[in-house]
Amino acid sequence: MLQMRKIAVLCLSLCLSLGLSVPVNATENAMSENTVTESTAPVTPETPEERAGKELMASLWEADIEILRKALDTGLLTSKALTAYYMERIAAYNSIYNCFITICDNVWEEADKRDAQLAAGTAKGKLFGIPVVIKDNMEYAGYYTTNGYSFSKAKVSDSNAAVVQYLLEEGAVIIGKTNMSTQAQDARRSRSGAVGDTYNAYNPDMSPGGSSGGSAVATALNFATASLGTDTNSSLRYPAALNSCVSLRPTLGLVEKDGLVILNSRRDTAGAITRTVKDQAIMLSVITGGGNYEENLDADALERVRIGVLKELSGATALKSGRTANNIDSEVMLSFQQALWDLQMCGAEIVEVSMPDIFKLSAKCAENISGWQAAKETYYEKYQQMFLENDISAVVFPTYLNSPLYVKNVSNFYGQTYITNCNLLSSVIGVPEISVPIGVHSRGAGIGMEIASLKNTEQLLLNYAYSYTEKFDYRQIPTLAPDIYEDYYVRNLGDYISLVETGSED
Fold this sequence. Notes:
Blueprint: H1 13-17, H2 48-58, H3 65-73, H4 79-97, E1 100-103, H5 107-120, E2 131-135, E3 144-145, E4 155-156, H6 162-169, E5 173-178, E6 191-192, E7 196-197, H7 213-220, E8 226-231, H8 237-242, E9 246-249, E10 269-274, H9 277-287, E11 306-310, H10 330-345, E12 349-353, H11 358-366, H12 372-390, E13 394-398, H13 426-429, E14 433-441, E15 445-452, H14 458-471, H15 493-502
Parallel strand pairs: 2-5, 2-8, 11-12, 11-13
Antiparallel strand pairs: 1-5, 3-4, 6-7, 8-10, 9-10, 9-14, 13-15, 14-15
């Protein structure tokens, strides 16, 4: 299974048997620019060192933060080699997907700094040496912050957003700033005035969602280990779902907003997009300035808990126009039904719960009136009451209900049916909500499920998502941007780290 981290894997036993050191710098010079050139030199046989280096690069495919940190700590890998791996993938495939507004030209210098600290034994941090990307509405000193506008309207930042500063303090290497919809205003696509549209990781004809589409696609395609985005209504979770990633919108106020370009002060928050729940927990620990969410994950968290299926968001309803059976995608609903069975297999009791006034309550909070705060409080009180009356600890519902949207070769993009659930609950009353993959649509886009609870229950949601994805991992690796080193897969990188640590081959 993917979650078992059959990541891409290798065997470097040849190096060990020959007494050779692991060539951790095998690809450090592979990418000094954002282009790939073909060599016209005669082909010569690979040396054992060269092959071992390529096997090492093969092992990085889909690698998570924990395994990469171990590889860096054991000296199996350098930050510069890891950065080069992602930069090589960006050079090979980004022209198809258009994930970036800016590629940072200081990545090599920053990676060298991390390697010097690793060599000196002074490296510390949950993300030390790990390449990540950030959405281009976050300040990063020395680089433009376009907020999705053209560069002519942008300014070079002279300081770091709080969340970016936390990344750096934990040792991350920031590769680039990702594409987004202009001013973060479009949830359906990620089209900027700077570089145009980003395309879905599974099918470049499809929309990746917005406004954090660049971050979601870059993460899905292994252009970085993880990413940051922002969420006003659905801008983290909808793109994450469409690209089979994980994203948690935190309780409003948990993550600092300093240095973010704010669209709506009542709703905006930063968050992470990752390929795994454990990586999501690590990223949340970092951007909250010192959490330990990953240390408290519980793979059995779903045993003997009651979870409510929020009826009004989980199928057709007469309470909201457009939410008809004809407009709801059958593949989305089949995936969601399967997810409900899966939750029961994890030990959860699934019950249907109802909140008939959810659409009216949400709309009232969005009104530009003096009583909006009172409206939010009323909504949250009724939401809490639903939990108490049904004795549930969380609710679930599909991330979206429509068929995934075509963004290429479509005459009327905004004429396509669009039904999202992301803008009705978490973004309105500020409760945490996490999106996890539950399938891939035949059109070529991920399908997601939302899990939401009460305020300040991030650990509970991470535990539920972790328990679910450890047993049922529906993330599929996008096939149109394959691993450059796939011919060199032999063994799991985690196995090789164990081999290095023990000094023997089993």
